[in-house]
Specification:
The protein is α+β, with helices and mostly antiparallel strands and about 425 residues long. The chain has 13 helices and 10 strands. This is HEXXH motif domain-containing protein.
Length: about 425
């Protein structure tokens, strides 16, 4: 494995380092519809891989001392034996969270020291999975050593831990819980499964689950996948390709699901019924797709000021948040429409509600002066996808009823935020 290409300047995801990606108009328009296509999925995967390697290159360049180079050498040796295992470790979602946090700490004049020892844990995980012989020493933190994609080692003794190719076979190993039906893991172990400190209660990861908790998740996950495959097999396949792990959210979390750019390939989700979990997966996968696209394309030049109405939230949103939310809800509208056509109970009402939300904010998005030409083409294609749903309308007056209810909500929001009323596009 050669070292990743050198990014200039050394910080996560420098825009110029990803500029080699070319997104054709056909792929752009297809992605804008939210519908899965082979070309769109390939672009998302390629952008994620390139961004991760650039980030790891930046960590290596900034890391002091010889240990980082030695651990990278172990990764290279492991890759010669099993390239897939090494790629899986390096592109595991928590690796991105660790790398971004480490890079920030390496360049910060004050604050906590970077956890460079975790690079050794990545190398050990890759070496164990590839089956090569090795010897190295790492220092567990708080009595545990996290090995991404594998789980935890819980040594009985404190202090440095000597590791070999037989270490995972000891009685000290606590493996990640594999979810049924694919390669997705339920990660309630990795200390970097979510950024520390930056995201409090709304996306607080759960502590280690009990066997009963794992079994409950197995049931919910299996049910959600069954529904996805029944109602929308293309989105089921998309979720299988783009999701590497699910991070269970703690009881204090206010969100049913979340996607964090640093943890590409992960969805943070609360335990919920299979129909709700299926919808959460559809919704969150779209955030990951759009995040990858905006790593290589500039869709707008607006700042982060929250000034826009988003019907799915009570607080004003910046343009970036409004665009992400509209995109995810456009996918949800399509999913519920397909579910309704299969006879899913309540699906037509959900489709009508979500579609009405999307239709209500698309005019403000399309008219926004800070959209780039590419962004305008993207949003116009989103609007065309929303209009195309007219071909299969809900029965009766459900769509009209949903729009009237939403208009009442819009007026109430404007009354609560009079200074932002013009941003609703009405």
């Amino acid at each position: 494995m050669t070292r990743p290409p050198h990014p200039e300047p050394p910080h996560p995801a420098p825009p110029d380092a990803l500029a080699r990606f070319s997104v054709g108009r056909r792929v752009l328009r297809a992605l804008a519809t939210t519908e899965p296509t082979p070309e769109g999925l390939r672009l998302v995967e390629d952008v994620r891989r390139s961004k991760r390697l650039l980030l790891l290159r930046a960590v290596l360049d900034a890391a002091p001392g010889p240990e980082a180079g030695e651990w990278w050498g172990l990764l290279e040796e492991a890759e010669r034996q099993d390239p897939h295992a090494v790629r899986d470790v390096l592109h595991y979602p928590s690796t991105g969270v660790w790398a971004e946090e480490t890079l920030r700490r390496l360049h910060a004049p004050h604050g906590p020291a970077p956890d460079l020892g975790h690079l050794g844990a990545l190398a050990v995980a890759a070496a164990l999975r590839s089956g090569i012989g090795f010897k190295t020493t790492l220092r567990p933190a708080h009595g545990r050593l996290a090995l991404p994609t594998l789980g935890l080692l819980l040594p009985e003794r404190t202090g440095p831990l000597a590791l070999t190719e037989r270490s995972w076979d000891s009685g000290d190993a606590l493996p990640l819980h594999p979810l049924p039906g694919g390669l997705t893991s339920l990660d309630d172990l990795d200390p970097y499964r979510a950024p520390t400190g930056a995201h409090p209660a709304p996306v607080r990861p759960a502590r280690r689950l009990t066997p009963k908790g794992h079994k409950r998740w197995d049931t919910q996950w299996t049910g959600a996948l069954t529904l996805l495959e029944r109602y929308d097999s293309a989105r089921a396949e998309e979720a299988g390709r783009l999701l590497r792990c699910v991070v269970p959210l703690g009881g204090g979390s206010r969100s049913s699901g979340a996607t964090l750019p640093a943890a590409a390939g992960a969805v943070l989700a609360r335990g919920q019924s299979p129909p709700a979990l299926a919808a959460t997966l559809v919704h969150e996968v779209q955030h990951g797709k759009l995040a990858a696209l905006t790593d290589v394309l500039t869709l707008h030049t607006a700042d982060r000021t929250p000034r826009h109405w988003a019907p799915w939230r009570t607080d004003p949103r910046p343009l970036e948040g409004l665009l992400h939310g509209t995109y995810a809800h456009l996918a949800l509208a399509g999913y519920w429409q397909r579910a309704a056509l299969y006879g899913a109970r309540g699906a037509w009402a959900r489709h009508a509600r979500v579609r009405a939300q999307v239709a209500a904010v698309l005019p403000a998005l399309r008219a926004h002066p800070r959209l780039t030409a590419t962004g305008r083409e993207f949003v116009d294609s989103m609007a065309a996808a929303e209009r195309a749903m007219d071909a299969l309308p809900p029965p009766g007056d459900q769509h009209t009823t949903a729009r009237r209810a939403l208009e009442r909500e819009r007026r109430a929001w404007c009354a609560a935020h009079p200074e932002l009323a013009e941003s609703t596009g009405a």
